[in-house]
From TrEMBL, chains A, B:
Homodimer. The monomeric form is inactive while the homodimer is active. Its main location: endoplasmic reticulum. It comes from the Bacteria. It comes from Novosphingobium album. Residues 186-207 are annotated as: Disordered. The keyword Signal applies. Residues 1-26 form the signal peptide. This is Carboxypeptidase Q. Keywords: Carboxypeptidase, Endoplasmic reticulum, Glycoprotein, Golgi apparatus, Hydrolase, Lysosome, Metal-binding, Metalloprotease, Protease, Secreted, Signal, Zinc, Zymogen. It holds the Pfam family Peptidase_M28. It is found in: Endoplasmic reticulum; Golgi apparatus; Lysosome; Secreted. The keyword Secreted applies. InterPro entries: CPQ, Peptidase_M28.
Length: 463, 463
């Protein structure tokens, strides 16, 4: 609507009356403390920091300075080269049967379309299985569209299967002969902001241009596809321009820092997050929050006396596109022979921790009980099942068969924001962020002060 | 996060198991009936339809065909020329003190920056009053940023005052010598989707480039401005590219159709919406929903017998940028001498009607009581206060001093979506849309069957 309220004759004096009492601006709730300062600082002073970029390098320098200022020891930037990807201009529209601009973004490791666009029929598949079932070669010269039905889940469990549309769909479409692929974003929001994220090219597949549209765009494509299927509209045609391209041998690096324990000879406790972010947002929930949480908790665990074991903080480089050569793998190259007792990672946003899992050996049942008891008053429920660790600690966990504790955050809203332009500071609830810090602190106070052996982990650390 | 769940060895058979049961796609609730069909059809088959565009012309043809198919009589496209505006490429980033891309969109009637961007200091004003208080000439060569604190309100009442930052801010900045202006979007969401909308150039002011950033971007600018004010950061610099430009004498048109009454000699009842939309979304809530509501209600009012008075439907062209020469003004040129009894407009989204107002003369108290009584079982509350009519019916209301009924919709969430890319079909709740149709039908059955005189309206029809 345009309200017919234009104050035609409203002078400066009247405006002053209207606006004088509105000094407060619309900035959301402000937090305080170490975790908030890290999230606020990284998002405000660095912003987007895609792996391999100059911004990621600035983020490392920022992190090094911040960790030193917070009193950490042995603060080091550990540079490495990595496989990465650079975004280019991106634009798409349906040209038939209706003219509709599409809100699209390229997937990491997409290869470029022609600069003036790939013009092709867009073929609708309701699921990844339907694409898989298409005959070989049937998509020659066409662009595949893959729909799906991701729904929100507290534990984020939709991301495994529905995320596979992004991870596996492009290789599958390529094997069918497609000239390109567009997917419904792996996301649970209804904003017009598509979700990026890396795809992977299976051995023997030819990389093709690959993008994701927002959920409202995918809804529209589904409605049009239904008209096409019913013979009520001509086939869909897309004009697709995605100029992003791989960036091999890109510069990245980890930032590592320590709070030395009372007995530096004991195996250390490693806590990790990642410093790089996707380029569309400012990486507030993914994963400045994780860096804020683990760093603040490592410090808070020292209140009332230094911990027995050294706590090492890893702010990893290139998590998002790291695959086999990101920050987690580089950490193993540098630190793989140093004795570790346990690793934990925070990389699932800033909402409240609600569950805890571990892969402790039976010998450490008493330790597990102490951890669970420390979390009990906070309403954090012990769960069975495989631990995940995460991409930054996964390589060292596998290398050393480490014990792991997963503090599971509430992911109900995580995939509204994940890998989108909407991943910004205003989405971080300062109270929930602090609850994370409190939960991590409680755990670190137990495990970093453990005098007994912390045995190797057992059972399914999933990769 | 990147979950370490890549199914390295997951073959086609496993994928089939994972996906076979996911045939349903994520399309939101589907509606049915005339109103839904209009909203679904316009957004799917036409999409964005900015005034003056070829898409707006397609929308008129679509509307003409739809209204004929629905059984309306005297279906006419009434073309006119109008002042309009065309979007161009748009891009902005802070270059100091931090590098931050900004989610920006140009305001209607903005003039273009240089093609390679306007590079200037960005000066922060917390309110429009603060900008007004800046000394003349103090912004020479600079870009003004105007913040504000719009909050959601059920009756949409924030849009008058806070919308003035958009309507009046650019002229004010120009008068202070600014080279450009960027405002916080007049919106209540926290998506990274800025809100467009027309600005206006006051007499004697020089048009300047004018844009709006999303709320999260404005939050960030406010945080950086606080660092600048505290001497902790260098002044903000912006690199602003907004290439949209005015499009004078653009082609537009109204679509008008009638359901003739039993007594065509009686003054008619006019119900209106607008057919054009902003270009960023698909105009689902602004205002395909309005067209769906008034059209479906006009038809439903005939159930059980034709109405006494003719109901005329106006799907107006160029409401969004129409100012003094949009569809409402053209309607008066064509139909200003024909006798009208009453006018109503639907242009505030698709959420439920919760209040009703009128400007009836004391002579029509009995009619007002009948209208209110018809709405009473639906929980729609009579309110006192000035009626608004709307931009499409405002000119004819003023011309003929018409009686008006405002059916006030719940606008709590309207300014999350208004004038953004997020204005898409999934935001329309079919049940709420139908509640609108039911409320409108109830009112039309009363007023279009009124045998007595319907007197001129009285009191404050605000412009």
């Amino acid at each position: 609507m345009t309200r017919s309220l234009f104050p035609r004759s409203l002078g400066a004096a009247a405006l002053t009356v209207l606006f004088a009492s509105t000094a407060a601006n619309a900035t959301p709730a402000q937090g305080s403390g170490v975790a908030w300062d890290i999230v606020e600082g990284l998002t405000t002073e660095i912003g987007p920091r895609i792996a391999g970029s100059e911004a990621e390098a600035r983020a490392r320098a920022w992190g090094e300075a911040k960790l030193k200022a917070l009193g950490f020891s042995n603060v080091e930037i550990e540079p490495f080269r990595t496989g990465a990807w650079q975004r280019g201009p991106e634009l798409a529209r349906l040209t038939a049967p209706y003219q509709q601009p599409l809100a699209i973004t390229a997937l990491g490791y997409s290869v470029p379309t022609p600069a003036d666009g790939l013009k092709a029929e867009l073929v609708y598949f309701p699921t990844l299985a339907a694409l898989e079932a298409a005959p070989d070669g049937s998509l020659k010269g066409k662009v595949a569209f893959v729909d799906h039905a991701m729904r929100r889940a507290q534990d984020g469990s939709g991301y495994g299967p529905y995320g596979n549309v992004r991870r596996l769909g492009p290789s599958m479409a390529s094997r069918k002969g497609a000239a390109g692929i567009v997917i419904r974003s792996a996301g649970t929001d209804s904003n017009r902001d598509p979700h990026t994220g890396s795809t992977m090219w299976m051995k023997g597949t030819t990389p093709i241009p690959a993008g994701a549209v927002s959920n409202p765009d995918a809804d529209m494509i589904a409605r049009i596809a239904a008209r096409v299927a019913a013979g009520k509209a001509a086939p869909m045609q897309i004009d697709l321009t995605l100029l992003g391209k791989p960036f091999p041998n890109a510069p990245s690096g980890n930032v590592v820092a320590e709070l030395p324990g009372r007995d530096p000879s004991l195996p250390i406790v490693l806590v990790a997050c990642h410093l790089d972010s996707w380029d569309l947002g400012t990486g507030a929930i993914d994963d400045a929050s994780g860096c804020g949480i683990v760093t603040a908790a490592a410090l808070a665990a020292q209140e009332g006396g230094k911990t027995l074991r050294t706590i090492r903080v890893l702010w990893s480089g290139n998590e998002e596109m790291g695959m086999r050569n990101g920050g987690g793998a580089h950490y193993v190259q540098v630190h793989g022979k140093e004795p570790h007792a346990l690793a934990m990672e925070s990389d699932f946003g800033a909402d409240r921790v609600w569950q805890v899992k571990n892969n402790f050996a039976p010998a450490n049942k008493a330790l597990a009980d102490k951890v669970n008891a420390a979390l009990w008053p906070m309403g954090i429920v012990p769960h069975e099942g495989p631990v995940e660790g995460g991409a930054d600690v996964g390589p060292i966990i596998r290398e050393q068969k480490l014990a792991v504790i997963d503090l599971g955050q509430d992911g109900t809203h995580y995939f509204d924001l994940h890998h989108t332009p909407d991943d910004t500071l205003d989405k971080v609830d300062p109270a929930a962020l602090q609850q994370n810090v409190d939960a991590w602190t409680a755990v670190l106070k137990v495990v970093a002060n453990e005098t007994g052996d912390i045995a190797k982990g057992v059972g399914g650390e999933e990769e």
